[in-house]
């Protein structure tokens, strides 16, 4: 009979020790000032694989083709009637990114996203695009740009707001400079210089 009584006490003792150990473990992971059941918490950078940040510079050419049978940019929303700045127009893009200014030069990725004409005083774009790379170790990684692009300024600067793959936690900026622009065909080649910090 004595043996039967010791089995439940052994189990309850084991349960108490397990709960105590679990509580101590969760407290050490969350940190002294954090509640493990809270909505957000601070994480250890090393556990996320975050090391020292790297700064890289990329230069490539962005080709917008609206002419021909296979355009890389198409209007999906027309502008407001009588707008001199094409206010309200939205274009979806899948533009090639190449190493050189010729569209036939080596392609390193694609600019995918959209832009909207968002200024009633001058022709200026709101740009939301991913640079989806397909070259070397960057294949499958993206850099995301979201910003204002007053297209007739000589140099336009837009922020990098994130990325994926090798560019997780990316930040930085891009500078865009018009290389060529064919007004009749509505085709353009833009030089992009990209300055990106990432882990």
TrEMBL record:
The keyword Cytoplasm does not apply. Pfam families: Dirigent. Its main location: secreted. Belongs to the plant dirigent protein family. Homodimer. Dirigent proteins impart stereoselectivity on the phenoxy radical-coupling reaction, yielding optically active lignans from two molecules of coniferyl alcohol in the biosynthesis of lignans, flavonolignans, and alkaloids and thus plays a central role in plant secondary metabolism. PANTHER family: NUCLEOPORIN-RELATED. This is Dirigent protein. It comes from Punica granatum.
């Amino acid at each position: 009979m004595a043996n039967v009584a010791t089995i439940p006490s052994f189990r309850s003792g084991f349960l108490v020790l397990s709960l105590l150990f679990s509580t101590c473990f969760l407290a050490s992971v969350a940190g002294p000032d954090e509640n493990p059941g809270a909505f957000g918490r601070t994480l250890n950078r090393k556990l996320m694989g975050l090391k020292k940040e790297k700064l890289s510079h990329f230069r490539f050419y962005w080709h917008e083709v609206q002419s021909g049978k296979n355009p890389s940019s198409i209007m999906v929303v027309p502008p407001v009637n009588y707008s001199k700045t094409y206010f309200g127009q939205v274009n979806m893009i899948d533009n090639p990114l190449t190493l050189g200014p010729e569209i036939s030069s080596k392609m390193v990725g694609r600019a995918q996203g959209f832009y909207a004409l968002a200024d009633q005083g001058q022709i200026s774009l709101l740009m939301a695009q991913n640079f989806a790379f397909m070259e070397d170790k960057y294949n499958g990684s993206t850099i995301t740009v979201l910003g204002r692009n007053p297209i007739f300024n000589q140099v336009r600067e837009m922020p990098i707001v994130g990325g994926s793959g090798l560019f997780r936690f990316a930040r930085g900026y891009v500078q865009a400079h018009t290389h060529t622009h064919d007004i009749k065909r509505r085709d353009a080649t833009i030089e992009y210089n990209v300055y990106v910090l990432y882990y």
